[in-house]
Amino acid sequence: SISGLKPEVVKKLVALGGSKFNVSTDLKHALIDATFDYISANREQYNPGKVDMAVKDAVKKRINYWIDLLGCAGKA
After folding, report:
1. For the chain, which has fewer Cβ within 10 Å, the N-terminal or C-terminal residue?
2. GO BP, one example (predicted)?
3. What tens digit of pLDDT does each residue of 64-75 get?
4. What distance in Å separates the CA atoms of residue 66 and residue 58, rounded to the nearest whole number?
5. CB-based contacts of 7: which residues, under 8 Å, 6+ apart?
């Protein structure tokens, strides 16, 4: 999470009016981890499209986590 904050702390900060949270590093970790995991599990295949899909799915999952945690769902 953000700077090691627990999810319940982030929710409390939002409830108290926090409105700017930097999640870029967390999303970059999701990208790097998904790339590593896919390549490690599929060493015999070279398919950049499948790597891209694995990364896209992982980052999308993490974005949805932040949208829910920060209370942003349905507000756009």
Report:
1. C
2. carbohydrate metabolic process
3. 999 999 999 998
4. 13
5. 1, 69
* Three-state secondary-structure class, residue 45: coil
> What 3-state class would DSSP assign to 48?
helix
Q: How far apart are CA 58 and CA 56, in angstroms?
A: 6
pTM equals 0.84
DSSP H helices, the chain, are: 7-15, 24-41, 48-69
Is residue 70 classed as helix, strand or coil in its secondary structure? coil
What average pLDDT does range 5-29 have in this prediction? 94
